[in-house]
From TrEMBL, chain A:
It comes from the Bacteria. Residues 73-279 form the ABC transmembrane type-1 domain. One of its GO terms (cellular component) is plasma membrane. The keyword Cell membrane applies. It is a multi-pass membrane protein. The chain crosses the membrane at residues 28-52, 72-95, 107-131, 159-184, 205-238, 258-279. GO terms for biological process: transmembrane transport. Coiled coil: none annotated. It is found in: Cell membrane. This is ABC transporter permease. Residues 1-20 are annotated as: Disordered. Residues 7-17 have a biased composition (Low complexity). Belongs to the binding-protein-dependent transport system permease family. CysTW subfamily. It comes from Streptomyces sp. R41.
From TrEMBL, chain B:
The keyword Electron transport does not apply. It comes from the Bacteria. The chain crosses the membrane at residues 6-26, 63-85, 91-112, 119-142, 181-203, 223-248. GO terms for biological process: transmembrane transport. The lineage of its organism: Bacteria, Bacillati, Actinomycetota, Actinomycetes, Kitasatosporales. It is found in: Cell inner membrane; Cell membrane. Pfam families: BPD_transp_1. This is ABC transporter permease. Keywords: Cell inner membrane, Cell membrane, Membrane, Transmembrane, Transmembrane helix, Transport. It is a multi-pass membrane protein. One of its GO terms (cellular component) is plasma membrane. Belongs to the binding-protein-dependent transport system permease family. Residues 57-244 form the ABC transmembrane type-1 domain. The keyword Membrane applies.
């Protein structure tokens, strides 16, 4: 197998030899046509209909004047920012610990991160609802340790939403931060140590600055995913924790105001797209950073 | 060393909620607490004899079947078509192929809801499966593309110069290389579909209620052992997926290989 060819070298040789290619020219277009047709009909058309629906009447003005909408936009921002902060801090800790281990321990620890990654949100939310209920494990432990006498309300509030979201989001933060750590040249640490640097200053002056692109990528990725949360606020939150996705659902399925729901959906898409664009810019800048 | 100790509670936080659903499925009481008071298989047998849960399970499997078949076929062919080829507009096409991963699920749910009503396709599992296929195609595309990264395009050219037709090139050059990518893509597509809730919630009907939709509805009223049984099944699927992924990782000797597969997705 020629598996040692790097993608860069492979595409370079493809470019150089392109005029001499003997493969039938149309084959690749035939291979590409089905997926393009599929996405045109089942992805672009529904989104196009959504855009069209949002322009009916004064949907945008109506939606933007609704105090419930501004409330859920504010909720979305607050909950997402809080969850992102907690996720990135905990994710950094996990990534560093995994990075410091040998190859076998790395695989095992990664498996621990990947198990919840593979598990659907409802399973996780259900588990948290059981753990955080009044007679749940957490409350029993708190009372057993003598921290409280009566059950603390841990469920159906913002705390539960953030716990559920951080649990869901953690793997998404661990991977980019780990990638940034793995890209660090070992010799830097060695050199710093030989010059008398302690653990703390190695971390503060070498590792932390070199992982900034990974951390920003992780933070943005997690924030992007946060803004679309729908299930967790319903299962773990209270009536005051409605996020923008729930508002869209409310407009569509309760009010049957599809123009309003579509306008809100487009608003959410635009917000997310802006963050995705910044995220991709950071990823690209991070790549140059590693190369240089 | 201190970071290792500090990370233990975080790992516990990460893993425990996933694992406790297994013992909870074998609880004897009607309402759920953890740890379970007495053990019994009542909930499990109850789950499998419950008409509503069984039809939800069947709806989920049908939708996943549609999503996996379409995702593997279309994602695979797209990756092969674009492999080792540079042309103007390639970035735009790749962007279009990956775009369903970025659009929030609730936005897609609303778009699909209005679209399928307008074309008169409601009340069956098929629209749910098709919608899941839309979000699963990018995963299959990415896994197959990742498996093609090691294939030298010169191999394809030499095969054709030796007289291999398009079919033989596909069968003898591409297929052996992309097989792991196809398997991983099928697994991702299955996992995406079996857990997807928001789109299935919008497209549900009495005849087409998937497992997560049934769970979502039930969780809001009662934490019953049947939800735990359903959760335990989904965790089993997740564990199988994880095992396959870890095997791939060990074989490739690189954790970094996992990274392209962990793109933005889903809604919590």
């Amino acid at each position: 197998m020629t598996s040692t060819v790097t993608p860069a070298a492979a595409s370079a040789s493809a470019g150089a030899d392109a005029p001499r290619r003997r493969r039938p020219r149309g084959t690749w277009l035939l291979l590409l046509a089905p997926v393009l047709a599929f996405d045109a009909v089942l992805f672009l058309t529904p989104l196009g209909k959504l855009v069209a629906a949002s322009t009916h009447g004064d949907a945008y003005q109506r939606v933007l004047k609704d105090p419930l909408v501004s409330r859920s936009l504010l909720n979305t921002f607050e909950i997402s920012a809080l969850s992102t902060l907690a996720t990135v801090v905990l994710g950094y800790l996990l990534a560093v610990v995994i990075w410091r281990r040998g190859p076998l321990a790395r695989v095992i620890l990664f498996a621990l991160v990947l198990l919840p990654f593979w598990t659907g949100v409802l399973v996780k939310n259900f588990a948290w609802a059981v753990l955080l209920q009044d007679n749940g494990l957490v409350n029993t432990a708190l009372q057993g340790l003598g921290i409280t006498d009566a059950p603390v309300a841990l469920l159906h509030n913002r705390f539960a939403v953030v716990v559920g979201m951080v649990h869901y989001l953690l793997p998404y933060a661990v991977f980019p931060i780990f990638a940034a750590l793995a890209a660090i040249d070992d010799r830097l640490e060695l050199a710093a140590r030989s010059l008398g640097a302690g653990e703390a200053s190695i971390f503060r002056r070498i590792i932390l600055p070199l992982t900034v692109p990974g951390v920003s990528a992780a933070g943005l990725l997690v924030f992007i995913i946060s803004t679309g949360f729908f299930i967790t606020p319903v299962v773990l939150g209270g009536p005051g924790d409605m996020m923008i996705a729930n508002q869209i659902d409310f407009y569509a399925r309760q009010l049957t105001d599809f123009a309003g729901a579509s306008a809100l959906a487009l608003l959410l898409t635009v917000i997310v797209s802006v963050f995705v664009a910044i995220y991709q810019r950071i990823l690209r800048a991070g790549g140059e950073y590693e190369a240089g | 060393m201190s970071s290792l100790i500090a990370s233990v509670p975080v790992f516990v936080f990460l893993v425990v909620p996933t694992l406790i659903v297994l013992p909870m499925a074998f609880t004897g009481s009607r309402y759920i607490t953890f740890p379970p008071q007495q053990l019994s298989t009542e909930a499990v047998t109850g789950f499998f004899s419950d008409q509503a849960w069984m039809s939800a399970l069947s709806a989920s499997l049908q939708a996943a079947g549609v999503a996996v078949a379409i995702a593997v076929l279309l994602g695979g062919t797209a990756a092969v078509a674009l492999h080792g080829r540079t042309f103007p507009g390639k970035a735009a096409i790749t962007g279009l192929l990956l775009a369903p991963m970025i659009v929030p699920a609730v936005v897609l749910a609303l778009a699909f809801y209005q679209f399928f009503i307008s074309v008169g396709m409601v009340g069956t599992v098929l629209p749910i499966g098709l919608a899941h296929a839309v979000i699963a195609v990018p995963y299959a595309f990415l896994t197959v593309r990742a498996s093609l990264a090691g294939l030298n395009p010169a191999l394809v050219r030499s095969a054709s110069s030796l007289g291999a037709g398009a079919f033989s090139v596909m069968r003898f050059v591409y297929l052996p290389v992309i097989r792991p990518g196809l398997i991983a893509g099928a697994l991702f597509a299955f996992s995406v579909s079996i857990d997807e809730t928001v789109i299935a919630l919008f497209l549900q009907s009495p005849n087409a209620t998937t497992l997560p939709v049934k769970m979502f509805t039930d969780i809001q009223y009662n934490l019953t052992p049947k939800i735990a049984v359903s959760s335990a099944m989904l965790v089993t699927v997740a564990t199988l997926g994880l095992l396959v992924q870890v095997c791939f990782t060990i074989r490739r000797r690189s954790v970094a290989r996992l990274l392209p597969l962990t793109a933005p997705e889903q809604t919590g």
